[in-house]
Model the fold of this input.
Amino acid sequence: MKLLRKKSIWPYVMSAILLFFAIALFSIETKNANAASTQGEHLITIYDRSKQTTILTNAENIEGALKDAGLTLDPNDIVEPGLKESLIASSYDVNIYRARPVTIIDGNIHRKIMTAYQTPVQIANVAGIKLYVEDKTEMILNDKLAVSGAGLEMKITRAKLVSVNLYGKLIQLRTQATDISGFLNEKSVELGQTDRISLDLTSQIVEGMSFRIWREGVQTIASEEPIQFETEMIKDANRYVGYREVKTTGVSGTKNVTYEVSVINGKEVSRQVISSVIIVNPASEIVIVGTKYNGPEPTVTSEQILWMTAAGIAQSDWGYVDYIITKESNWHPNSVNSRSGACGLAQALPCSKVPGNPLDAVDSLTWANGYATKRYGSWENAYNFWTSHKWW
Done:
């Protein structure tokens, strides 16, 4: 009887293995090709009124990206970031503020403009109208489009300009008050027992009027003093940490401060503020700061931030520092490796490398900052080395 010979399965196994590697190689090549094809592209999310559009674009700036999205702009529309903003990051959020007609009613003057601005001061600036802090504005939605030709009205109620001789200092002030008593309350002027005023408190405020306030029996000194402007920070997630742009320059204000001065034997022995009236309000400085990190985003405490700041480490490097120090010592300044003897936050080896106290957080980070920049050229390069070698 003739026996049938078993066929070997190895050829099938080898064929399956070769097929698996061929598929894997094709997948890798396809991914590389896709990565190469999308190189240089930017993900742009556009917010236009209530509509949201997301596109991929190779445009060089925001203007080009909007063209790629098929969006047209009115010359009065506002785009943030600006149209000439270069596209550097991988993704951006773009806001479009559409211009609409606004009628400005300023007394007997009616002026129609197109603007995307929202605040009364911005709208007035576009129209070339000076708006004072004491002026009142009212935004009214006008449903009589056929008559006015504009859907929004901004009505300005002007403050009256009066001249006041305040304790010997002549100043001009604007007010919405209807009488002298209301004016004093508006300007936070409190009359003392020996203070006098040239008009009755019930006298009506009229444009261009003048009156005098003085103090009997004592010496008063009035001086014009500056009011420091405040700085408002706007965080821009499209900009890297370290970026800082002054969008609107701050302007200091002025105030008239009146002092009651006591003089004995010809020498001033004391002075007390009896009046402080704002003449010009300060204008805040608007600063745009970047919040985007090149590397890992830091998750550090306020104390750790103080340590890095004292060590002279730039904020843009905090993510790299946080990653390395967390791996080295988990942010414990007194950490000592029992086997190698490396110590401190940065695990210096030997400890004597650190000038000062190697177990002091600031001393250790100061040394680490110099070590990272001298040996690797930057904290980013030190981070890349650490992630590849698990040491630095």
